[in-house]
Every structure is written in structure tokens, then in C-alpha cells.
Design a protein that fits this description.
The protein is an alpha+beta fold. The protein has seven helices and 17 strands. The longest helix has 14 residues. The N terminus is likely disordered.
Length: about 290
């Protein structure tokens, strides 16, 4: 086993199959127009996390992350360099050079749990490349234009991320595409390739919500019944939009959500690369879109 404490103070992560990038610093902020719209800026010394002001490295490769000011959720990330450090009173000024924007999905997960600050990356991490972990199903879901196949493959995706009690429902008037229950989480889901589904599916969505207000849910055309009185209840409209998942409406008894397949992909990767149990999976699912 490799002792990562003694390897290097760089982190290596994969952006594409043949492309690797080294980074020494991680800089996170919620300030407006960062990081791709600034040439020089500063950090208060109180925001240095493991970085020593007298040991700054010129032209150090750096990962830059922008947070949402209100929610503190990660929005965008870039790779670039920092240089020309100037130590003035309680601030360190420096120049920023952005080389490229990078996907948050390509960053090691532990980096995405940090708060605002300027970090020294002290470990060397070489994760398994995502291409080696990605099933062909994911690419098919992103490219598919057939609504029936999209529905079928979404069912496979839900099973793949660890939802065992998941049911694909025969499509008849008034029926959703599927239903699943995971302990105290009960979800009716419907799959769509439509962009304006909030208008075209309004009546259907209200019908799905009404079905969940009952104490019991029966899988259509079967004798399978689930007691859902004490469950947290949600209606998911699953899309392949590139936008993040969001809550469309939050009723007292049922949440209505738009769910992006890419957020479900992320859960798949997390289950493989992190410590994961059923409780964490439930928490991840209930937090989608929030």
C-alpha cells in the first residue's frame, strides 16, 4: 500500500482519459465574477488553510472554485496558476491566470466538501479514471431520443445506484413510469425528454402527488402494496437536462422535483469511491434539488 503522506504535495486528477493535471493550491470563494473574470486579487491571511505566507510558490498550479453566495453550493471550477505574490498588512495579493474551466464532476470528492479559503493540497490522489467505472448505460442515457428507451434505462439507473425496491410500471393513462421505496422514502417517478414538462405534465404531476397522499400505494396491475403513511414522499420528473436537479413545488405532504440523470450519475460514482451505506444513500436522494 502506498503511503500518500510521503509522496508529494500535489494532487493529480483526471479530466479526460489521457489528460492529467497537477495542482498545489485550492482556492474557493463566493465573491462575484470569480475566477474567470479577474486578473489579480487577494486573500485575507485568516483564510489561509495550511498555506504558509513565507513559502508561497510562484506559478503554482491551482484549482479555483466558485461558490453560490447564498447557498454555498459549488457552481463552477477552473484550473490555472497564481503568481506575483505581495504581502501587505493582513492580505496577500497575487495574479490569477486561468487556463481552462473544468467540470466539478472531475474533481476528487473530498475537495468538494471544503469551505471558502486558500488551501495547500498536501496529498497525492490518483483516483480510478471515471471512464473505467462508467457503464455504457450512462452514455446511452445522455444521447437517447426515444422516450420509451429513456424510461427503460432510467429504471436500470435507479437499480444501479442501489434502489432495490424499484418498480417499472406498465404505461397506462394515469400511471407514472415507476415507483420506489427506500425505508422511509417513497417516490413516484416519471421520465421525460420534454423541455417544458412543467406545463405539459401539470395535470399528471398533480395526479401523482394525489396518489402519494394516501396511506398505501399499490403497484398498478400487481398485488404489491406498500404502507407509505409515515414516509417522506416525493414525485420525481427525471430528465436528461444538463441543469441541476431542483424542487419545483414543496407541498406539506409531497415534494415535486425535477431530477437530472447527471445527479444520479454522481451518486453512482460516490457509492463506488466513498464510504456509503443505505442511510447515506437515502440522505443523498432526499437532498437532490435542495
Amino acid at each position: 500500500m502506498v503511503n500518500i503522506d510521503k509522496i508529494s504535495n500535489f494532487i493529480i486528477f483526471s479530466l479526460q482519459k489521457e489528460e492529467m493535471i497537477n495542482a498545489k493550491y485550492l482556492m474557493i470563494t463566493h465573491w462575484d465574477n470569480y475566477w474567470d473574470k479577474v486578473n489579480n486579487t487577494y486573500y485575507p491571511k485568516g483564510m489561509l488553510k495550511g498555506v504558509k505566507e513565507n513559502e508561497l510558490e510562484e506559478n503554482a498550479p491551482t484549482i479555483f472554485i466558485k461558490l453560490d453566495k447564498n447557498t454555498k453550493k459549488y457552481e463552477r471550477a477552473w484550473f490555472g496558476y497564481v503568481s506575483n505574490f505581495k504581502n501587505k498588512e493582513e492580505k496577500i495579493y497575487f495574479d490569477v491566470k486561468i487556463e481552462k474551466e473544468i467540470s466539478l464532476n472531475d474533481l476528487p470528492r473530498h475537495l468538494l466538501k471544503k469551505s471558502e479559503g486558500w488551501y495547500l493540497i498536501i496529498e497525492k490522489v490518483i483516483p480510478i479514471e471515471k471512464e473505467e467505472l462508467t457503464p455504457p448505460l450512462f452514455r446511452r442515457l445522455e444521447e437517447i431520443e426515444d422516450s420509451k428507451l429513456f424510461e427503460k434505462y432510467v429504471y436500470y439507473l435507479l437499480k444501479l445506484i442501489g434502489i432495490n425496491n424499484c418498480y417499472s410500471i406498465e404505461k397506462q393513462k394515469g400511471n407514472p413510469d415507476g415507483f420506489f421505496v427506500l425505508k422511509k422514502l417513497a417516490v413516484i417517478y416519471d421520465c421525460t425528454l420534454e423541455k417544458n414538462f412543467e406545463r405539459t405534465k401539470k395535470t399528471q404531476i398533480e395526479n401523482y402527488r394525489f396518489q402519494l397522499t394516501r396511506d398505501e400505494f399499490q403497484i398498478p396491475n400487481t398485488n404489491i402494496r406498500y404502507q407509505i403513511k409515515d414516509c417522506e414522499k416525493e414525485v420525481w420528473i427525471i430528465t436528461k437536462d444538463k441543469d441541476k436537479s431542483k424542487v419545483i413545488e414543496d407541498y406539506r405532504d409531497v415534494k415535486i422535483k425535477k431530477i437530472s440523470i447527471r445527479d444520479l450519475f454522481d451518486i453512482y460514482y460516490e457509492r463506488l469511491l466513498e464510504d456509503y451505506d443505505e442511510e447515506k444513500l437515502i440522505k443523498k436522494l432526499t437532498n437532490l434539488g435542495i
